[in-house]
Amino acid sequence: MYAITLREFGGPDVMEWAEVPDPVPGPGEVLVDVVASSVNRADTMQRQGQYPPPRGASDILGLDCAGRIAELGEGVTGWSVGDEVCALLAGGGYAQKVAVPAPQVLPAPAGVDLVAAAGLPEVACTVWSNIVAAGRLAAGETFLVQGGTSGIGTHAIQLAKALGARVAATAAPQRADRCRELGADIVIDYHDDVPTELKKATDGHGADVILDNMGAKSLAANLDALAVDGRLLIIGMQGGRKAEIDLNTLISKRASVTAMGLRGRPVDGPHGKGAVVAGVRAQVWPMLADGRVRPVVHATVPMDRAAEAHRMIDEGGVVGKILLEVPTG
After folding, report:
1. For the whole model, what pTM was predicted?
2. Residue 221, CB half-sphere, CA atoms under 13 Å: how many?
């Protein structure tokens, strides 16, 4: 098969469409003929040598994909060859084929084009596992997502709105309307004093749940923006890894801070990827079927030109997901 490989770590031009050995599904796995994958921020970090894959995972980029099942590994039930699916991956999505543990496979959502479905598993599993499973976001609460026009942000706005929350998002001024179109009730210029603006818009309440991808840079502001009994969920470190926490703020607000990733989780177990995927299938897939949540696609690029897609991510201004479609012929 062909896949995107890295000559070395560095800029987008280190990626090449090259021939590599075909994957073979092991026990409990399915082999997927990939139709499309999506570009995640983690892919650009791995390309730069900053985010190695977990032990035992493919070193090919790509954390989700969509396609058709080509082969079932030993012991797999509930799936058939030819089924249209999408899948959460630990790696390997930028390729013509990928072997996936069966618990990480989802049926292609009803009413969603198969190529567009490639952009759903990583964002849906990240958002659901954080704001629903860990954050316990409830109807009537206020939710803030930092970076409302990112792939995570565009999905989180819609999911939180579907859950009945009042939704706030940060964004650049020129993209604020996109957040509102997706359901955001409050949009704050990320250059501004976010806690102050959020409290103004919520009569001093703040946010019950915050989803943050910046890490250290935003920690103090996020704690300030939390409401009493608020939950801060950290999923990224784009703004650094280390910061001080004012424990008095946490204690006085009875607040909690949770930081967790998805890629390195085991397949099985109560907090494993299989459990996350099952929760997404049960709770998020019906929202896609009835249109409350929909994929947000910025652009679709041929997979053999993945360097172009990575340059778009590096340059900024992307709204939603960039998809990589496997060339045909």
Report:
1. 0.95
2. 21
